[in-house]
Amino acid sequence: MVETRKKEMTFGLAVIPLVLMIVAMLVTIVVLEGSPHTPLIFGTAVAGLVAWKSGYQWNEIEESMYKGIRLALPAVAIIMLVGLTIGVWIGGGIVATMVYYGLKLITPSMFLVAITTICAVVSLAIGSSWSTMGTIGVAGMGIGVSMGISAPMVAGAIISGSYFGDKMSPLSDTTNLASGLTGTDLFEHIRHMLYTTVPALIIALGVYWFLGRGFGSQSVNMENIQQSMMAMNENFVISPWLLLVPLAVIVLVIRKVPAVPALIVGILLGFLCQVIIQGDTMSSTVTTLQAGFSIDSGNEMVDNLFNRGGLDSMMYTVSMTIVAMTFGGILENTGMLKAIVDQILKSAKSARSLVPTTILSCFATNLTCSEQYISIVVPARMYAKVYTKKKLHSKNLSRALEDGGTLTSVFIPWNTCGVFILGTLGVHAFEYAPYAILNFTVPILSMIYAGIGFSIVKLSDLEQEEMEEQLERNTV
């Protein structure tokens, strides 16, 4: 049997599938107004062909795709559960209750500030931007749009608040991932992120306050809001007791119950609310879980808000995630991504260039591999020894991973985060991008800090030796 010798993956070979995929993506989305699935499948095919020409056997290429898909399975599970949650929380009157009281309590001029703050607090408590956007965010979209505020603007505020809490919460999976991969103490990592994340939140709130000044009570059609509230009252049982359902989910996650069982409890409570409180039949409630909630209230705004949710509504997102991860799996597991990152790394000569290089590498990984977890995992592997060699503390790397990986994932329409937001909030990445203030301010601040040397922590000789020994022990 003749064994094919694998060639070393060069930068020139590695960028071929990436460039062709991006070109196909731009043509498909911008010119043909199609979905990103097909360009990613095309990119996967090109990546597989390049790997095969470089000496990889088909079974190795196939296993690379499966590895990528397996990495995304936790995200797929949460995506499906969020679809079920949205369906029965709408059917159970929970979302309608949040929207109803939100319209009564929050003034239009302060709405963007208020929804950002609420999402930040909830996400900080539960450690999940997705769960926050899929629950509080859905209600927030209804309130904001009802007040005459544009959907992209509302979505941007929700995203900013949700990602602040996700980034700063000790319960967040990405926060734990970044600190764990770099060997940084979790709370030291969080404290170090305060330098970039808190100023970015203040800037975001300032921008939202400024934008909100154009939405005073006089600019809002109060008649439409009153009609919408009347339609909600006619079609749902509105009760403050229903707010106990999202509160229960928040309490569960605060008590360190994992996201999946916490969401399942939320689904069960929503199911009971739809059957017992709203008086729907078991049959229609089961249909809501599968196909989403359906309403014909005669009020266009209410119908647009509440005709959604269910498992079926998330199948676009699920298929997008699987397709994206097959592409990312081949790039990572055949050495293409490493070749690209290694080439980029040649330009990083100091902390001033290394931190921006890390952030841009994370963004590039989000762009190519379509998954925020990979955008943290791969650069962490690539840069850990480089940071130590340049006597930079690991918390500089862990912060850069989150600043460049976690936060920029929302700007890529075919990234799992961009697709999830489209499925839950109903706004495309290109539309909400200018208003997701926190998400692009944080990486900018991080790169500015690196340039001037602010909050860049150096290692002593002894700490450098200890870190090098730790990295050697962790090397597989």
Topology of this structure?
Layout (H helix, E strand, L loop, with lengths): L10 H21 L5 H17 L4 H34 L2 H12 L5 H16 L2 H18 L4 H18 L4 H10 L3 H27 L9 H14 L8 H11 L4 H19 L4 H10 L8 H7 L8 H19 L2 H10 L5 H19 L2 H18 L4 H13 L9 H10 L3 H4 L4 H16 L8 H14 L2
Helix pairs in contact: 1-2, 1-16, 2-15, 3-6, 3-12, 3-13, 3-15, 4-6, 5-6, 5-7, 5-9, 6-7, 6-20, 7-9, 8-18, 8-19, 9-19, 9-22, 11-12, 15-20, 16-17, 16-18, 17-18, 17-19, 17-22, 18-19, 18-23
Keywords, separated by commas or semicolons:
476 residues, mainly alpha, 75% helix
Number of strands: 0
What is the assembly state of the chains in this entry? single chain
Most strands sheet: none
Residue windows where pLDDT falls under 50 for at least 5 positions = none
Radius of gyration: 23 Å
Apparent shape: globular
Tell me the distance between the termini.
30 Å
Helix content: over 70%
How confident is the prediction overall: mean pLDDT?
81
Describe the structure.
75% of the residues lie in helices and 0% in strands. The chain has 476 residues and is mostly helical. The radius of gyration is 23 Å and the shape is globular. It starts with 10 loop residues before the first helix and ends with a helix. The model has no long low-confidence stretch (mean pLDDT 81).
Q: How do you describe this structure in short?
A:
This protein has 476 residues and is mainly alpha-helical.
